[in-house]
User: Which sequence fits this backbone?
């Protein structure tokens, strides 16, 4: 079920949106956010986007899953720009089950890496220009990535000695031109390092 309520105020339109999927096993909130005076707060798709959806999988552009965020958008008609702080979306690297993780002077064979919480959100900036049939888009993202061992570590393993924090980034850009009322041509590309899930490839 989708709920989309818009209320006119003296400061602009207040929008409340929710997308809820109800199944036999329960309900899932895919999106729920509020938009007002350029601010967006809640759970929704990332602002890291190009023409249409943001990420490329198997030759098709597909969206990244929704997440919590807070964003501000400047809308100047043909041009708009957004800055956003978004929930960390990384698929943290996981050692194959039973594979050793080699640390100088320490044995950790058989212990796997698990998802580690990041100390900061992902930061995203995006822009869009559309006028006279021409559309230009661009976006960039930067985020912190952490890697940790399972909660129960082998005896004598000094977890504090593991370098566990790094940073990643991703970019996307595109151009599209409408040559007929029902026909347009365009090209877009995306690149990521340490945040390749933004490009549709699981880290």
Assistant:
């Amino acid at each position: 079920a989708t709920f989309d309520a818009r209320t006119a105020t003296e400061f602009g339109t207040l929008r409340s949106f929710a997308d809820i999927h109800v199944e036999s096993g329960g309900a899932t909130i895919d999106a729920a956010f509020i938009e007002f005076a350029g601010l967006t707060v809640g759970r929704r798709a990332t602002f890291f986007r190009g023409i249409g959806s943001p990420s490329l999988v198997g030759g098709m552009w597909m969206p990244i899953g929704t997440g919590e965020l807070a964003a501000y958008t400047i809308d100047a008609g043909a041009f708009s720009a957004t800055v956003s702080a978004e929930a960390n979306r990384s698929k943290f690297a996981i050692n194959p089950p039973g594979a050793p993780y080699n640390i100088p002077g320490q044995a950790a064979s058989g212990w796997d890496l698990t998802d580690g919480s990041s100390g900061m959100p992902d930061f995203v900036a995006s822009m869009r220009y559309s006028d006279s049939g021409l559309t230009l888009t661009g976006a960039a993202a930067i985020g912190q990535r952490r890697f940790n061992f399972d909660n129960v570590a082998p005896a004598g393993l000094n977890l504090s000695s593991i370098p566990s924090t790094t940073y990643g980034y991703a970019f996307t850009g595109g151009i599209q031109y409408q040559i007929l009322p029902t026909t347009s041509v365009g090209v877009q590309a995306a690149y990521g390092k340490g945040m390749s899930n933004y490009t549709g490839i699981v880290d």
